[in-house]
Amino acid sequence: MTVHAPVSPSGLAATQRRKAITAACIGNFIEYYDFVVYGYFASVIAKLFFPSGDTAASLLLTFAAFAVSYAARPLGAVIFSHLGDKHGRRTPLAVSVILIAVSTTVIGLLPTYDAIGIAAPIILTGARMVQGIAVGGEYGGATSFIAEYANRRRGYYTGWQTFTIGLALFTGGAIATVLTASLSEQALSAWGWRLPFLVGVPLGLIGLYLRMRLDETPHFLAAKENTEVVRAPVMAGIRRQWRSLLIGMGVVVTPAICIYVLFVYTPTYLGQVVGHSRFEAQAANLAGLAFYCVLIPLFARLSDRIGRKPLMIAGTVALVVLAYPAFLMLGSAHVAVVVSGLCLLGLAFAPHSAVMLAVVAELFPTTVRYTGLSLSLNIPVTLLGGTAPLIATFLISRSENTAAPAFFVMAGAIVSLVAALAARETAHSDLIAA
Fold it and tell me: Is 104 helix (H, G, I), strand (E, B) or coil?
């Protein structure tokens, strides 16, 4: 039986709510910032940590270390969601931001293969694994925290968490582009590539400081007071909420594909497939990202007024219709046409992306919300996000059609459209308590 929360955070001061949202979002920013920085400097890292006579083999090993973080995410989701649903959201979020910041810093300070031998790639891979475990618990916990503090403006406030993903990708890409353009190849390999990773030190300290000063969410405190906290939230979540889990994972399929195809794979696609220079490819990608970021808060706020389902349906249908024409535009030799194509994709993707976190948070009761969010977010990202560049490249090579990645995007949008139609409208209801 569905019971709604007996407590509401509506009485919280606006400053307290903003502080909670900022603290929750900062870990998300560090996660995706590190992701894009590692990708941009993969070729440098390959030479320094995986030396080989075969450049392709070195790069492959570098991306294998990168993939380890994705394989570790479900493990992190299980560990942290158990703690978060049984003991509260605050402590797991503090631990996760420490682990993310420390592992990012370790990568930035790590001696190369020439200095410490085989220990260098082993430590690098270990740091990536720790990051993956922390991120697996970070995303769902941060979303739970925001949703349970946000009252009836859950769409708007969780939308800022999605905004930080785009902001992190933009910031990491911009810093990498500036460093690549301003430093010589020798300076970049010697010390320049380390600078973006070391930014994780102050960001991690700020995030930890903010999170340690937060109170537990009112919804979890109410569940604890009413003895509704379950002993084994992961098993309870899977057994009792399997339908919500399927819908949640279906909703996340589109963002899992689009974030990585549209904003991470695009610079490589524009450079290697279309033939633009590195600067043109990165500049076009940053322009598309900036446009997408501007749209997120607007659609998120709109969802609190008109509901989540209309925006999810509109966004997924738009992707099905516009993805292929937009990818044809990306194949243009003119940068302005490429930017227009990226903006068109961003416009189609933004309505669904903006409300995705609110929708998934509202599917689950407080007792297993951390678990439901963590599994719904991490499983599709592990299966589809981490493999998206590989799938896109495979589609192009097999079909000999440079616009073939559009079919991957369209397939994901259809899955999410079905999930959106199956989901109930929750924008104007209280969060479920038990």
Answer: helix
Q: List residues bridging with 158 in a β-sheet.
A: none
- The helix/strand/coil state of 413 is helix
Distance of alpha carbon 142 from alpha carbon 30, whole angstroms: 13
Distance CA 393, CA 64 (A): 17
State both tokens at 238. 């899977």
List the one residue out of 330, 208, 202, 207 whose CA is nearest residue 262: 330
pLDDT tens profile 251-265: 999 999 999 888 888
Token representation of residue 406 = 């559009």
Domains of the chain: 9-422 (1.20.1250.20)
Cα 221 from chain centroid (whole Å): 28
Contact 193, 172 (CB under 8 A): no
Beta bridge partners of 4: 432
Q: Tokens 């600067």 label which residue?
A: 279
Cα dihedral 234, 236, 239, 240 sign: negative
What are the φ and ψ backbone dihedral angles of 117, each rounded to 5 degrees? 70, -140
Structure token digits, residue 212: 């340690």
Report the chain's C-alpha Rg in angstroms: 21
Give residues with Cβ within 8 angstroms of 194, minimum separation 6. Answer: 108, 109
Q: What's the token pair of residue 397?
A: 């090579």
Cα separations in angstroms, 110 against 27, 60, 123, 127: 22, 20, 8, 10
Using CA atoms of 305, 309, 310, 311 in order, give the dihedral in degrees to the nearest 10.
80
CA 107 to chain centre: 20
Residue at token pair 């990645």: 405
Model confidence pLDDT, tens digit, residues 127-186: 988 988 988 888 888 898 898 888 778 999 999 999 998 899 899 888 888 888 888 889
Q: How far is the C-alpha of 290 from the C-alpha of 253, rounded, in Å?
A: 22
> If you count DSSP H runs as helices and E runs as strands, how many of each does the chain have, helices first?
20, 0
Strand ranges inside 303-346, DSSP E: none
Q: Would you call 4 helix, strand, or coil by DSSP? A: strand
Which candidate, 201, 76, 79, 60, places its Cα nearest to that of 129? 76
